[in-house]
């Protein structure tokens, strides 16, 4: 099965702007804030998954943001999970949490996510399913991040 993450008649250029094992897990907002549309790739328990949003990350304003185009995905499972409750698309935070996709489920990464095993990834009512909860990192909802990469997207004319 092929999974199409983006459908567009124009070419899309991607550029890596952050890699946790290179830049440090406390520097996410230094490299990723105000970069426009991004794809976040996470490797945990040897599963690869992540999220997309057209919105900027912002480590200063702690609030939920609305994005009807946001989605989560699993490259390991070759599945895409569209946003169902768009007012909870992403959560920008600067303390305790580094980033969030969705509420009450989705992806939440905490400070020091490379060493903490309390990060969560769960497909449920906000993204994907309405009555079923599925962990993204194997069979557990909580995980420690092995790697996290962020890519910004540019649409070429």
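^ Assign residues to that structure.
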């Amino acid at each position: 099965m092929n999974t199409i993450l983006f459908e567009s008649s124009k070419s899309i250029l991607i550029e890596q702007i952050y890699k946790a094992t290179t830049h440090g897990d406390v520097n996410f907002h230094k490299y990723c804030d105000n970069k426009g549309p991004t794809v976040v790739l996470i490797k945990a328990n040897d599963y690869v998954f992540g999220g997309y949003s057209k919105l900027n990350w912002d480590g200063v304003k702690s609030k939920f943001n609305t994005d009807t185009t946001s989605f989560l995905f699993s490259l390991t499972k070759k599945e895409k999970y569209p946003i169902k409750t768009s007012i909870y698309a992403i959560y920008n935070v600067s303390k305790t949490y580094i980033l969030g996709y969705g509420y009450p489920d989705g992806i939440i990464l905490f400070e020091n996510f490379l060493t903490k095993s309390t990060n969560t990834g769960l497909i449920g009512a906000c993204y994907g399913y309405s009555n079923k909860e599925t962990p993204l990192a194997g069979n557990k909802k909580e995980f420690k991040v092995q790697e996290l990469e962020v890519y910004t997207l540019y649409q070429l004319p």
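DSSP finds two helices and 13 strands in the chain.
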